[in-house]
Structures are given as structure tokens and as C-alpha cells.
Amino acid sequence: MSTGAYESLADLTVPDEEPDHTSFLLYKARALIALNRASEAESLIPVDADSFPLKATRSLAKYVDAGDESVLEELRDLCVEVDGEENVSEAEKWQVKVLAGIAFVRAGETEEALETLGVGTNEESLEACVAHTAFAVSFLIALLRAELRLLSKSTYPSPAPTSQRRNSPAL
Question: How many CA atoms lie within 13 A of 88 on its CB side?
Fold first, then answer.
């Protein structure tokens, strides 16, 4: 995996004040998690953060770092809590759901991840249904690609050097 973009984000200096502080903090923390530096991400986000996406990001970092199953319950509760909030934007609600979904997939709970993302639920609009379906398909394709990479590394031998391939019969 190329880590160039993640490295750049992980090295980002987070502004001290809003309006950019929370956004930069989220990007940096998620980059650190992707680079397997979850403990750094966890320590970056204040324990008493009031932003739902920051809470979810901190919980994801905590789960990735320690694998503590109780964190999954925290994320479930956070998803329920954020859904009940009227003064939270849809974008923030989605951020929380996606971060929780990532933790559920890492825990091997793919069905719960898809349920968290709203796949298979009755939506009020066709547009929302299409968006959920498209996201679910891309999510599943990403999972499949990761599984195939793991399988190809462990199951199949490396290809023969070119000098050996010249003498092999053509298919």
C-alpha cells in the first residue's frame, strides 16, 4: 500500500482555532489510523471532545490500537445518539456511521457494518437509496480486494523468473 497521501496528512499541522481545527484534526487522526499509528491518533483527540465525528474517530483509534470489544459498544451507542440529534448535520451523522462501520469490519462484523450504514433499510428518497447502495457496493469491493491481496500473498507462489518462462509452453 502506498502511504504517500496518508504520510502527508499525518505530518499536517493542525490549526489552533476554528473553523479549520476540527476538519484538520479529523483528517490527521484518520491518516494516523490508516498508517497503523492509532495510539497517536487517540492521543491527538481530546477525551472530552464534543464533536460526534471526533468521538467516533477517537473510538476507532482506540479499537484499532487495543482491539477492545467494549469500544464497539461505544460506537453502537454513538450511532444511536447521533441519529437522535436534530442539530447535527447529515454529513456528521454519516462520518460517525462510516467510522463505526470501519471498526465493525475490522472486528469481522460485516453485516453490522452494512446495517450501520443503512444498507437494506427503507429510505425516504430514491436518491438516498441509490447512495446507500453505491456506497455498500464500493465498500464490499474494497473488502474483497483486501481479501484477495491477502490470499494472493499467502496462497500463490511468486511468478517464475523471465528466463524460466521462455522455455515453458504457451497456453
Answer: 18
CA angle 40, 44, 45 (to 5 degrees): 130
d(CA 38, CA 66): 9
* Alpha-carbon gap, residue 117 to 105, rounded angstroms: 12
Residue-wise pLDDT tens digits, 56-109: 999 999 999 988 899 999 999 999 999 889 999 988 998 899 899 889 988 988
Residue with cell 487517540: 42
In this structure, how many other beta carbons lie within 10 angstroms of the beta carbon of residue 129?
A: 15
What residues contact residue 38 under an 8 Å CB cut-off, 6+ apart? 32, 60, 61, 62, 64, 65
* Rounded Cα distance, 62 and 42, in Å: 6
pLDDT tens digit sequence for 2-14:
566 778 888 888 8
133-138: long-range pairs with CB below 8 Å, 24+: none
Amino acid at 163: S
**Separation between Cα atoms, residue 126 and residue 93, nearest integer Å:** 19
